[in-house]
Amino acid sequence: MQLPNDYQTQMTHLLGEEADSFFATYQEEPSRGLRVNSLKLTPTDGKDRLPFTLTPIPWTDTGFFYDHHKDRPGKHVFHAAGLYYIQDPSAMAPAEALDPKPGERVLDLCAAPGGKTTQIAAKMKGSGILIANEISRERRKALVENIERCGVRNAIVLGEDPRHLTTRFAGWFDRILIDAPCSGEGMFRKDPATMERWSLRSTQAAAELQFSILEATAPMLRTGGRLVYSTCTFNPRENESVIHQFISNHPEFEVVRAPGVNHFSPARPDWANLDPSLNHAVRLWPHRLRGEGHFICVLEKRAGEEGARQKPGKLPPVHKEAAHVFSNFAKETLVEDIFPGPYTLFGDHLYHIPDDLPSLKGLVVERPGLHLGQAKRKHFAPSHALALALKSEEVKRRINLSPKDEQLQRYLRGEALPYEGEKGWTLVTVDHFPLGWGKVSGGLLKNHYPKWLRSEVV
Length: 458
Ligand SMILES: C[S@@+](CC[C@H](N)C(=O)[O-])C[C@H]1O[C@@H](n2cnc3c(N)ncnc32)[C@H](O)[C@@H]1O
Fold this sequence. Notes:
Blueprint: H1 5-15, H2 19-24, E1 32-36, H3 43-49, E2 54-56, E3 63-66, H4 77-80, E4 84-86, H5 93-98, E5 105-108, H6 115-124, E6 129-133, H7 137-149, E7 155-158, E8 173-179, H8 193-196, H9 200-217, E9 221-231, H10 240-249, E10 253-256, E11 265-266, E12 282-284, E13 294-301, H11 320-333, E14 343-346, E15 349-352, E16 365-367, E17 370-376, E18 379-382, H12 384-389, E19 398-401, H13 406-412, E20 417-418, E21 424-430, E22 433-441, E23 444-447
Parallel strand pairs: 5-6, 5-8, 6-7, 8-9, 19-21
Antiparallel strand pairs: 1-3, 1-4, 2-3, 7-16, 9-13, 10-13, 11-12, 12-13, 14-15, 15-17, 17-18, 20-23, 21-22, 22-23
Helix pairs in contact: 9-10
The protein binds S-adenosylmethionine (SAM).
């Protein structure tokens, strides 16, 4: 791997005696990780059921190393069922530091493709409000797909520049994650394309952007709330220096000790002659642990200006007919009334939304809540997102297949299956984990597995 010359000089200068062992990691393969989705199964269940060789990742309860020479978890049907998320082991650390709880209001500001969003959602256990924001329209698609695949019920996906959110959500969030856009030095080994975009100037530009994102975000945190700033770069300009500049402007913010310190290395304020409290932030080094490069800083807001709390906002009213067709579908298909509303309609698409959400008017809204499906005149077509957000026992009709069943392969290819069951919408599950919808009539299960996902799985 040919590293940029300026980068080699920078790291040699910063690391001194340690530089050789650091550079040696570029001759090694990156470790691979997957995180069991605890919205669907416990990590212990995951270790027992997933047909891969898994070794626990020490800094998270749900993460495991896997052997990519032996196992291809991205291709397995359990991936399509959202049982896990493939994620760099180090990238699992920021959401651990954020430590979100059920019932809280959480913002994941730079969210795509959703590794940390789905990890935060699992920790929130479906309770509270998770706002996942991603400025790039292209990247939002993957974010939505991952949120849906993982069965997240309480996420709203926005597509805003952070500056447009500041006053709307003033003082509103209990926790905020800024997994900032960065020069990506920590990812050169895993994603060499990052190197092509790197230059000393790009690190300076990244630092300026990161500072402006922090400034726009700070007012959205309530007093007593927690903000985690993370990057996947080694550059002190984008890490310690940005935080130093930020806390100099905002004395109400304090750097607190990041959890998992024993596994990680302290930050290096000495590299830029900065505030020693920055020592509480951590660095993840590829020559010191099995993962790529990361920086994590936990900030708490002690006092200061409390933004005006926003009143719940009004979303467009839901046409009675749409609520009615969904209610009929729910009565016919679900065991209990688990989605009692409120709802909102985008076109003819119905969403289940949290009831105390501030107004989203004027913002780029990709998903206002859980996509329930499409209300077409007298009929309701349930969404794939709904299938994946359900538990097998929450539906009246289901067909369970095993991963090796030939019928399952046919279902995943989009074929109809012969089936003499009760008529109506039927959840297709693999080992009792929802995979998608089918509709039974006349001795056939008509296939409603999404076209864009067909034949991805082996
Ligand atoms: C490190 S990535 C996020 C990875 C994500 N948190 C995950 O775990 O999957 C940083 C994200 O910031 C977004 N971004 C780029 N410019 C931005 C800006 N000006 N404001 C906010 N986000 C930005 C990028 O599109 C990118 O998706």
